[in-house]
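Re: [ENG-882] Designed sequences occasionally contain unexpected residues at chain ends

Forwarding the minimal case from QA. Structure tokens:
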């Protein structure tokens, strides 16, 4: 049985999904004028960046794990696709539950850079939003 067409199809789907989170974040940032953003919009953008950063860190950690050479290209593509989906979900959960504090630091810095009023007390804990 020839799996070359199926492998190519999943390889294309995998590469599209692998770039999805970066494209989503880039589209949100392009043309955005955060000087007029609400606190929630600004914090949301910072949390998305933190989740993307954590995702890239998790993917780098996964590359250090030795791979089994006995899997076919089809199986490997499918495993990579679902592994990336799992990593993306874990990164979003990490960012929403506790995070690294990166979103909070970015939020405070953006508020200062854009000259937006003082940081409200509700933004002092990033985990309260989300």
């Amino acid at each position: 049985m020839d799996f070359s067409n199926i492998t190519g199809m999943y390889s294309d789907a995998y590469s599209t999904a692998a770039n999805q989170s970066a494209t989503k974040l880039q589209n949100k940032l392009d043309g955005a004028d955060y000087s007029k953003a609400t606190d929630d919009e600004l914090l949301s953008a910072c949390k998305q960046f933190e989740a993307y950063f954590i995702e890239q860190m998790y993917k780098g950690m996964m590359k250090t794990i030795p791979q089994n050479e006995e899997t076919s290209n089809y199986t490997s593509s499918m495993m990579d696709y679902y592994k990336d989906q799992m990593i993306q979900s874990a990164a979003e959960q990490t960012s929403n539950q506790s995070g690294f504090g990166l979103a909070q630091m970015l939020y405070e810095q953006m508020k200062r850079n854009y000259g937006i009023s003082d940081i409200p007390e509700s933004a002092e804990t990033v985990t309260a939003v989300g």
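QA comment: On inspection the terminal residues look reasonable. Helices lie at 4-29, 39-62, 73-97, 102-113. Proposing we downgrade this to a documentation issue.
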